[in-house]
Amino acid sequence: MTTTHLGAFPAGFLFGGATAANQIEGAAEEGGKGLSTSDFARFVPPAADGSIADFTFDATSEQVEEALAGRAPEGTMYPKRHGIDFYHRYREDIALFAEMGFGLFRMSISWARIFPTGFETEPNEEGLAFYDAVFDELLAHGIQPLVTLSHYEMPIEISRRLDGWLSRETIALFERFARTVFERYASKVKLWITFNEMNMNLTSIYTGAGVFPDRVQGRELQAAYQATHHQFVAAARVVALGHELMPDAQIGCMICRLETYAATSKPADVLRATHEDNLNLFYPDVQVRGEYPTYMTRYLREKGIEIAMAPEDAEILRAGTADFISISYYMTYLAEDRPDADALSGSLVSKLKNPYLELSAWGWPVDPVGLRIALLKLWGRYGKPLYVVENGLGARDRVEENGRIHDDYRIDYLRAHLLQVREAIEDGVDVRGYTWWGPIDLVSCSTSQMTKRYGFIHVDQDDYGNGTLARTKKDSFDWYAHVIASRGTSLIDVD
Ligand code: BGP
């Protein structure tokens, strides 16, 4: 596939980077912040063979109660509580983003920094002032903030008292939070995302919806779709509210796009892939079209799932549709029609391996062309503006004796994916921006590791929280800066 005919990215296309509060800020109990669900995600050291435990981002109600009572097993580590100390170092970090030429910075607001338990009627002024300072710093450098309201965390009190998003009452608490930040930041933030990757509710209902897995044992699927329904309603209400309070703002939805290929050209495999793909497109279907798609009605019925809906929900969903679609894109999936197909689907990484794709060090298939396919499909289905708000490579970096980090693998990954974005634009897809996941090393969402590094900027901190936290530039830093400065033409011409 040739790319040499491509010119610069369109004027106005925004290049940048993406983060989430719980993976960078730290200061878990400073500035009046309450504890969040993510503050209970553990780092569990690798086994002797180097493998890392799955699902340490889940916490059971018992683990949380023990931790709150100061009785967590000795040595339990919660890396998201210290993050990479962005809370105190945001000026230095933003200056580095500006040096790379970022036009867009995706970040999230920690709900518990604004409403420490979620139940207060007045916001925490110190929390609000922190984000004011961050937005001011970004804007002073000419960087536009793109803000996610809910990125894998909520005040732990909402989980303890209401079972998180399983409860309809959570919608009103979220609206209060959204109203507060919309009113406060309307003049500074013009691009918003309601929920990060709602489809994560199927993989980790704790991370995605603040529901303790032990409290929904045996009815996981029912609980995941019920919590998702409440998030749909909350998202729609917040979109409508945002439009009213901030007429010049754009408010989008976001999914982890799981582009699914059929394992063979056998029609039954293709049909299976279509079904699995639909289970992922379900989220933008509801949030962009404003109603549940018909294939989902059948799916839910056949799975014996009944979603409790209020009579007004249909109208709420219709009245609050998203202005744009944003995606995280890391890999593609394979589907095959076979007796154990259900057991194979729904995991973070496809259990069927695509022989044409290489794997990252963490076993994630690398598929740049899949990004173009995803963008084409979303554009064809919805005709809405698109943002790629996460894409990146978690890798183990080696610091040379002179302190340099030669991360050619990251450069190769970035180049290949950006070229596919450029191809999609050439195809006529309205892609407005690209924010690389983790422009600065941060705490991993799924494993709470530091050594799964994504950044162009290295942070001196290990998995156990040791290190000076000093920031240094990797080779990819200058490389990305050059891409941005040349509006992408250097992707083809220069190394
Ligand atoms: C996405 C999440 C991010 C992020 C990324 C990489 O699904 O929205 O929060 O961390 O994946 O995942 P990980 O950190 O587990 O490597």
Strand content range: 5-15%
Overall shape: it is globular
Q: What is the rounded distance between the termini?
A: 19 Å
Question: What is the number of E strands?
Answer: 14
Uncertain segments are: none
Mean pLDDT: 96
- Please, how many domains? 1
Q: Specify the CATH homologous superfamily.
A: Glycosidases
Rounded to an integer in angstroms, the radius of gyration calculated over CA atoms is 21 Å
CATH C-level class is: Alpha Beta
Bound molecules: 6-O-phosphono-beta-D-galactopyranose
Helix content class = 25-40%
Output the CATH topology. Answer: TIM Barrel
From the helix content, strand content and strand pairing, which structural class follows?
A: alpha/beta
What's the story with the biggest beta sheet?
A: 8 strands, parallel, barrel
Instruction: Report the total helices.
Output: 17
> Reading side by side through the largest sheet, how are the strands ordered?
1-2-3-4-5-7-11-12
CATH architecture: Alpha-Beta Barrel
Strands, helices and their partners?
Blueprint: E1 14-18, H1 21-24, H2 61-68, H3 86-100, E2 104-108, H4 111-114, H5 125-140, E3 144-150, H6 156-162, H7 169-185, E4 191-195, H8 205-209, H9 220-245, E5 250-256, E6 259-262, H10 267-289, H11 294-302, H12 313-319, E7 325-328, E8 332-335, H13 341-344, E9 358-359, E10 365-366, H14 368-382, E11 386-390, H15 408-426, E12 431-437, E13 457-459, E14 471-473, H16 475-485, H17 490-493
Parallel strand pairs: 1-2, 1-12, 2-3, 3-4, 4-5, 5-7, 6-8, 7-11, 11-12
Antiparallel strand pairs: 9-10, 13-14
Helix pairs in contact: 3-5, 7-9, 9-12, 14-15, 15-16
